[in-house]
Write a structure and sequence with these properties.
Blueprint lengths: L5 H17 L4 H7 L4 H11 L12 H16 L19 E10 L3 E5 L2 E2 L6 E2 L9 E10 H4 L10 E5 L12 H9 L5 E5 L3 H14 L1 E4 L12 E5 L1 H10 L4 H10 L2 E11 L2 E14 L4 E11 L5 E2 L2 E2 L3 H23 L6 E8 L7 H8 L8 E7 L15 E5 L6 H15 L2 E3 L17 H6 L4 E5 L18 H20 L11
Parallel strand pairs: 5-6, 6-7, 7-9, 12-15, 12-16, 16-19, 17-18
Antiparallel strand pairs: 1-8, 1-11, 2-3, 2-10, 4-9, 5-10, 11-15, 13-14, 17-19
Helix pairs in contact: 3-10, 10-14, 12-14
Bound molecules: zinc ion (ZN).
């Protein structure tokens, strides 16, 4: 067995001692925990997860309505705007941190092969458009997927046709990222990937592809395929391209296996980006601490959801309406405590973020543009879906998945367990915290952006269920008893972290 280094032995021994010493119920914390009622959670969720909020899609009307509602609750609780908010990058109201997003819609690049216009979503499609300006060429280099790995590419052509015979496995290509990283070094700007799967993909996922993808509107955004524009084309289009050069797919496949193959054919690309620019907002409720106010405990949940599809509202009551109302309830309890002379020693930031469903955008914006210094941010407690049970645990089970709480700080992991032991006695399930868990939940919600910066995190989650990202994630399916208990666990953990003498020691890695 591997020897435990003496330093970490001392840390764990100290930890055991401090846990034993601190292990008693705090009646003040309990009094304010009692302010977190099922009624309050139900009232907030009834509003935020109603059809009027249109599924709270990032940058859209429903998201603005939700942000306004959350801000209003912070005000009603007597939480003042963040001091010096404007200088810290907040909007004039002192609660909202706005960030720019862009939806890049495919279809902005037109393609003409040998004088004939190809049709978007019939002959070709793209996921991600990054061609800078128009491009014209008289030759196309042909590669096939068999030779690609070890191919000596030689001097590059601006345009490459990559032929996939459909036998290489997943239908859509080897690792496109790797391919384009290699090709970009030889001067290639566009890779046309011809695959038998192209037609089926356009038929099956056309809607999703045309919708485009949202991301932060920042200069370094274009890096999905290593700098090369990838376009997926049908085998028919590949045939007509090769035909213009006196070849066909079958022959070209063979030839390309043996040697460098270049076809003389005029190909033209015209680029007119179809970007849609929007703004989104994180909403911050800041309860300033007392003697340790320079340090910060962050509690997060995302208030955005996926919006509407085919006229149907996806209300996201669990995802993540449940976390949002939990944050509101905790902010209320902390504000009440402070008003009555029991405010936290450290400052506590209750932050509902947006853009989570689009790729953790709001939390990334915050951690890239922190409103409070990250090195005095001691923890992020993140909640994403805590109002339901999953298919693994029965209805009678009082459980919550805890993820990441022991990774960066074993002390944080111990604190969560201690608070649970003292106040909530939930069954803490660490299944998804296992190294190499295929679900990768640790990387899939907002806490991860904090963890990436070295800040200890704990993520609270109820697992997935049949209504996950479906139209029936509704308020009437929420278990308010469990939602309340899980909120209390986070509340007591936040209370302890805000009031204990030392911030949790960072002794681990992501
Ligand atoms: Zn979600």
């Amino acid at each position: 067995m591997k020897r435990v280094p003496i330093r970490s032995w001392i840390v764990s021994a100290a930890l055991v001692l401090s846990v034993q010493v601190a292990g008693q119920v705090d009646s003040v914390a309990m009094r304010y925990g009692a302010a977190i009622t099922q009624d309050m959670l139900r009232t907030h969720l009834g509003v935020l997860a109603s059809d009027a909020f249109e599924g709270r899609e990032t940058g859209r009307k429903g998201e603005k309505m939700a942000a306004a509602y959350i801000m209003d609750q912070f005000r009603k609780d007597g939480i003042p705007p963040v001091p010096g908010g404007l200088e810290r990058g907040l909007m004039a109201d002192g609660y909202r941190q706005q960030f720019p997003v862009v939806i890049s819609k495919p279809g902005g690049i037109s393609l003409n092969v040998a004088g004939k216009d190809a049709v978007f979503m019939k002959d070709y499609f793209t996921f991600d458009e990054q061609l800078a300006g128009d491009l014209q060429t008289g030759e196309v280099m042909v590669l096939n997927t068999l030779t690609l790995g070890g191919a000596k590419l030689g001097g590059g052509s601006k345009v490459v046709l990559l032929l996939d015979d459909g036998k290489s496995g997943n239908g859509l290509m080897p690792d496109l990222r790797k391919v384009s990283e290699t090709l970009v070094k030889t001067g290639t700007q566009v890779v046309l990937v011809a695959t038998p799967g192209a037609k089926a993909i356009m038929e099956g996922f056309g809607g999703a592809i045309s919708e485009g993808r949202m991301r932060l509107d920042v200069p370094e955004r274009k890096n999905q395929s290593g700098g090369v524009q990838v376009m997926v084309v049908t085998m028919d289009l590949a045939e007509s391209l090769l035909h213009a050069g006196g070849l066909n797919v079958k022959k070209a496949m063979k030839k390309a296996t043996r040697k460098r193959l270049v076809v003389k054919v005029p190909v033209r690309f015209t680029s007119k980006p179809l970007d849609e620019h929007l703004t989104a907002e994180n909403v911050l409720g800041y309860v300033e601490g007392s003697d340790r106010k320079g340090e910060l405990v962050v509690v997060t949940a995302h208030y955005d959801h996926v919006g509407m599809k085919d006229g149907e509202v996806y209300n996201g009551a669990d995802d993540d309406g449940s976390g949002t109302v939990a944050v509101l309830a905790m902010a209320h309890a902390f504000a009440k405590a402070k008003a009555e002379g029991h405010g936290p020693r450290r400052s506590v930031l209750f932050m509902t973020v947006s853009g989570e469903e689009k790729g953790l955008l709001g939390s990334r914006w915050y951690t890239d543009h922190p409103v409070f210094p990250l090195d005095s941010t001691v923890v992020d407690l993140n909640i994403d879906m805590i109002g339901r049970v999953d298919t693994v645990h029965g209805d009678s089970s009082r459980f919550v998945y805890v993820i990441g709480s022991k990774r960066l700080s074993s002390e944080l992991g111990a604190i969560v367990e201690e608070q649970n032991h003292l106040y909530t006695k939930l069954d803490l399930d660490y299944t998804f915290d296992a190294d190499g868990d295929p679900n990768r939940f640790y990387y899939r919600s907002d806490h991860y952006n904090f963890a990436k910066k070295g800040i200890p995190v704990a993520f609270f989650f109820n697992g997935v269920h049949a209504d996950y990202h479906g139209p029936h994630d509704e308020v009437d399916r929420i278990r308010f008893d469990l939602l309340q208990q899980r909120t209390l666990l986070v509340f007591h953990t936040a209370w302890e972290l805000a009031n204990r003498d030392r911030r949790p020691v960072v002794d681990g890695a992501n």
